[in-house]
TrEMBL record:
<dbReference type="GO" id="GO:0003700">
    <property type="term" value="F:DNA-binding transcription factor activity"/>
</dbReference>
<feature type="domain" description="HTH tetR-type">
    <location>
        <begin position="22"/>
        <end position="82"/>
    </location>
</feature>
<protein>
    <submittedName>
        <fullName>AcrR family transcriptional regulator</fullName>
    </submittedName>
</protein>
<dbReference type="InterPro" id="IPR009057">
    <property type="entry name" value="Homeodomain-like_sf"/>
</dbReference>
<feature type="DNA-binding region" description="H-T-H motif">
    <location>
        <begin position="45"/>
        <end position="64"/>
    </location>
</feature>
<dbReference type="InterPro" id="IPR050109">
    <property type="entry name" value="HTH-type_TetR-like_transc_reg"/>
</dbReference>
<dbReference type="Pfam" id="PF17918">
    <property type="entry name" value="TetR_C_15"/>
</dbReference>
<keyword id="KW-0238">DNA-binding</keyword>
<dbReference type="InterPro" id="IPR001647">
    <property type="entry name" value="HTH_TetR"/>
</dbReference>
<dbReference type="Pfam" id="PF00440">
    <property type="entry name" value="TetR_N"/>
</dbReference>
<dbReference type="GO" id="GO:0000976">
    <property type="term" value="F:transcription cis-regulatory region binding"/>
</dbReference>
<dbReference type="InterPro" id="IPR041669">
    <property type="entry name" value="TetR_C_15"/>
</dbReference>
Length: 215
Protein backbone atom coordinates (compact mmCIF):
# COMPACT_ATOMS: atom_id res chain seq x y z
CA UNK A 1 0.00 0.00 0.00
CA UNK A 2 1.33 3.43 -0.87
CA UNK A 3 1.97 5.81 2.01
CA UNK A 4 1.64 8.87 -0.21
CA UNK A 5 -1.52 10.95 -0.08
CA UNK A 6 -0.40 14.47 -0.93
CA UNK A 7 0.38 15.28 -4.54
CA UNK A 8 3.50 17.43 -4.60
CA UNK A 9 3.13 18.05 -8.32
CA UNK A 10 -0.07 20.04 -7.79
CA UNK A 11 2.01 22.80 -6.18
CA UNK A 12 4.49 22.78 -9.06
CA UNK A 13 4.67 24.63 -12.33
CA UNK A 14 5.80 21.50 -14.18
CA UNK A 15 5.60 17.87 -13.10
CA UNK A 16 8.84 15.88 -13.49
CA UNK A 17 8.43 13.01 -15.96
CA UNK A 18 11.86 11.42 -16.24
CA UNK A 19 14.12 9.98 -13.55
CA UNK A 20 16.63 12.83 -13.95
CA UNK A 21 13.88 15.43 -13.55
CA UNK A 22 12.49 13.71 -10.46
CA UNK A 23 15.99 13.58 -8.99
CA UNK A 24 16.38 17.32 -9.61
CA UNK A 25 13.10 18.05 -7.85
CA UNK A 26 14.13 15.88 -4.90
CA UNK A 27 17.42 17.77 -4.61
CA UNK A 28 15.59 21.10 -4.72
CA UNK A 29 13.09 20.09 -2.04
CA UNK A 30 15.91 18.81 0.19
CA UNK A 31 17.67 22.15 -0.28
CA UNK A 32 14.48 23.93 0.78
CA UNK A 33 14.59 22.04 4.08
CA UNK A 34 18.25 22.94 4.63
CA UNK A 35 17.79 26.62 3.84
CA UNK A 36 14.64 27.08 5.94
CA UNK A 37 16.19 25.21 8.86
CA UNK A 38 19.47 27.16 8.73
CA UNK A 39 18.32 30.64 7.68
CA UNK A 40 14.65 30.91 8.54
CA UNK A 41 11.99 32.60 6.45
CA UNK A 42 13.87 35.91 6.34
CA UNK A 43 16.88 34.23 4.73
CA UNK A 44 14.89 31.93 2.48
CA UNK A 45 15.32 32.86 -1.18
CA UNK A 46 15.06 30.93 -4.40
CA UNK A 47 18.66 31.92 -5.19
CA UNK A 48 19.86 30.35 -1.94
CA UNK A 49 17.83 27.21 -2.62
CA UNK A 50 19.42 26.93 -6.07
CA UNK A 51 22.92 27.41 -4.60
CA UNK A 52 22.45 24.76 -1.91
CA UNK A 53 20.85 22.36 -4.39
CA UNK A 54 23.67 22.90 -6.89
CA UNK A 55 21.27 23.76 -9.71
CA UNK A 56 20.58 26.89 -11.72
CA UNK A 57 17.91 29.35 -10.63
CA UNK A 58 16.20 28.52 -13.91
CA UNK A 59 15.90 24.88 -12.81
CA UNK A 60 14.16 25.98 -9.62
CA UNK A 61 11.68 28.15 -11.51
CA UNK A 62 11.20 25.43 -14.10
CA UNK A 63 9.35 23.42 -11.44
CA UNK A 64 8.35 25.91 -8.72
CA UNK A 65 6.79 29.29 -9.52
CA UNK A 66 7.61 30.98 -6.20
CA UNK A 67 8.74 30.56 -2.58
CA UNK A 68 5.33 29.52 -1.34
CA UNK A 69 5.27 26.65 -3.82
CA UNK A 70 8.62 25.50 -2.41
CA UNK A 71 7.26 25.67 1.14
CA UNK A 72 4.17 23.77 0.03
CA UNK A 73 6.38 21.04 -1.46
CA UNK A 74 8.30 20.53 1.79
CA UNK A 75 5.07 20.56 3.79
CA UNK A 76 3.58 17.86 1.55
CA UNK A 77 6.74 15.80 1.86
CA UNK A 78 6.38 16.03 5.64
CA UNK A 79 2.80 14.77 5.33
CA UNK A 80 4.06 11.72 3.45
CA UNK A 81 6.80 11.09 6.03
CA UNK A 82 4.27 11.13 8.88
CA UNK A 83 1.90 8.78 7.04
CA UNK A 84 4.79 6.40 6.36
CA UNK A 85 5.54 6.26 10.11
CA UNK A 86 1.92 5.41 10.90
CA UNK A 87 1.89 2.74 8.20
CA UNK A 88 5.07 1.11 9.56
CA UNK A 89 3.65 1.15 13.08
CA UNK A 90 0.57 -0.77 12.03
CA UNK A 91 2.59 -3.33 10.08
CA UNK A 92 4.92 -4.17 12.96
CA UNK A 93 4.35 -7.53 14.64
CA UNK A 94 5.72 -7.02 18.11
CA UNK A 95 4.70 -6.55 21.75
CA UNK A 96 2.39 -3.64 22.69
CA UNK A 97 5.24 -2.03 24.59
CA UNK A 98 7.63 -2.19 21.65
CA UNK A 99 4.83 -1.17 19.29
CA UNK A 100 4.26 2.14 21.06
CA UNK A 101 7.95 2.76 21.68
CA UNK A 102 8.71 2.48 17.95
CA UNK A 103 5.74 4.67 17.01
CA UNK A 104 6.80 7.47 19.36
CA UNK A 105 10.47 7.22 18.39
CA UNK A 106 9.66 7.39 14.68
CA UNK A 107 7.25 10.32 15.05
CA UNK A 108 9.85 12.27 17.02
CA UNK A 109 12.51 11.43 14.42
CA UNK A 110 10.35 12.78 11.59
CA UNK A 111 10.21 16.16 13.37
CA UNK A 112 13.77 16.17 14.75
CA UNK A 113 15.86 16.25 11.56
CA UNK A 114 15.14 19.92 10.82
CA UNK A 115 13.79 21.34 14.09
CA UNK A 116 13.78 24.98 13.00
CA UNK A 117 12.04 24.04 9.76
CA UNK A 118 9.24 22.27 11.59
CA UNK A 119 8.75 25.20 13.92
CA UNK A 120 8.31 27.43 10.87
CA UNK A 121 5.95 25.04 9.10
CA UNK A 122 3.65 25.26 12.10
CA UNK A 123 3.51 29.05 11.81
CA UNK A 124 3.81 29.83 8.10
CA UNK A 125 0.50 30.20 6.25
CA UNK A 126 -0.53 27.50 3.80
CA UNK A 127 -0.71 28.55 0.15
CA UNK A 128 -4.28 28.81 -1.09
CA UNK A 129 -4.00 25.66 -3.19
CA UNK A 130 -2.86 23.53 -0.23
CA UNK A 131 -6.35 23.15 1.28
CA UNK A 132 -7.19 19.94 -0.59
CA UNK A 133 -3.84 18.39 0.32
CA UNK A 134 -4.38 19.26 3.98
CA UNK A 135 -7.85 17.73 3.99
CA UNK A 136 -6.66 14.55 2.26
CA UNK A 137 -3.81 14.26 4.74
CA UNK A 138 -6.04 14.75 7.79
CA UNK A 139 -8.50 12.12 6.60
CA UNK A 140 -5.80 9.51 5.97
CA UNK A 141 -3.93 10.55 9.12
CA UNK A 142 -6.94 9.82 11.34
CA UNK A 143 -7.72 6.64 9.43
CA UNK A 144 -4.24 5.27 10.10
CA UNK A 145 -4.39 6.27 13.75
CA UNK A 146 -7.72 4.41 14.02
CA UNK A 147 -6.05 1.30 12.59
CA UNK A 148 -3.28 1.64 15.17
CA UNK A 149 -5.82 1.92 17.99
CA UNK A 150 -7.64 -1.21 16.80
CA UNK A 151 -4.38 -3.14 16.37
CA UNK A 152 -3.15 -2.21 19.84
CA UNK A 153 -6.43 -3.23 21.42
CA UNK A 154 -6.53 -6.48 19.47
CA UNK A 155 -9.74 -6.05 17.52
CA UNK A 156 -10.96 -5.56 13.99
CA UNK A 157 -10.74 -1.96 12.79
CA UNK A 158 -13.68 0.15 11.80
CA UNK A 159 -15.52 0.81 15.05
CA UNK A 160 -16.80 4.27 15.92
CA UNK A 161 -14.86 4.14 19.16
CA UNK A 162 -11.60 3.62 17.28
CA UNK A 163 -12.21 6.74 15.20
CA UNK A 164 -12.92 8.85 18.29
CA UNK A 165 -9.89 7.40 20.05
CA UNK A 166 -7.80 8.19 16.98
CA UNK A 167 -8.86 11.85 17.16
CA UNK A 168 -7.99 12.07 20.85
CA UNK A 169 -4.69 10.18 20.58
CA UNK A 170 -3.44 11.94 17.44
CA UNK A 171 -4.26 15.36 18.91
CA UNK A 172 -2.43 14.53 22.14
CA UNK A 173 0.68 13.12 20.46
CA UNK A 174 0.76 15.86 17.84
CA UNK A 175 0.38 18.54 20.49
CA UNK A 176 3.25 17.22 22.60
CA UNK A 177 5.61 16.81 19.63
CA UNK A 178 4.79 20.15 18.03
CA UNK A 179 5.16 22.04 21.31
CA UNK A 180 8.46 20.26 21.93
CA UNK A 181 9.61 21.22 18.42
CA UNK A 182 8.78 24.88 19.10
CA UNK A 183 10.77 24.77 22.34
CA UNK A 184 13.70 22.74 21.01
CA UNK A 185 13.02 19.81 23.33
CA UNK A 186 12.63 16.91 20.89
CA UNK A 187 16.04 15.46 21.71
CA UNK A 188 15.25 15.13 25.43
CA UNK A 189 14.98 11.48 26.46
CA UNK A 190 12.62 12.30 29.33
CA UNK A 191 10.12 13.79 26.89
CA UNK A 192 10.22 10.59 24.83
CA UNK A 193 9.69 8.42 27.91
CA UNK A 194 6.75 10.52 29.14
CA UNK A 195 5.12 10.48 25.71
CA UNK A 196 5.44 6.69 25.51
CA UNK A 197 3.88 6.41 28.96
CA UNK A 198 1.05 8.73 27.98
CA UNK A 199 0.19 6.66 24.89
CA UNK A 200 0.31 3.41 26.85
CA UNK A 201 -1.88 4.91 29.55
CA UNK A 202 -4.51 5.96 27.04
CA UNK A 203 -4.57 2.87 24.86
CA UNK A 204 -4.17 0.40 27.68
CA UNK A 205 -7.61 0.91 29.21
CA UNK A 206 -10.35 1.61 26.64
CA UNK A 207 -13.14 1.08 29.19
CA UNK A 208 -12.58 4.05 31.50
CA UNK A 209 -15.94 5.39 32.67
CA UNK A 210 -16.96 8.81 31.45
CA UNK A 211 -19.47 11.32 32.80
CA UNK A 212 -21.93 10.43 30.03
CA UNK A 213 -21.75 6.69 30.76
CA UNK A 214 -22.68 7.16 34.42
CA UNK A 215 -25.83 9.18 33.80
Amino acid sequence: MSTRVSDTTSAMRKAPRQARSRATVDVIVTAVAHVLDARGWSGFTTNEVARVAGVSIGSVYQYFPNKLALVDAIRRQHFDDVLAVLQRARERHTSPERFIECLVNDLIAVHRDYPSLHRMLLDLPNPGGAKDADEAFQQEYLHRYALIVAAYRGRRPGGKGDWTAAQVLSSAVEGVIHNAARRGLLAHSQLRRELIRMVHGYLGDPHVATADSTR
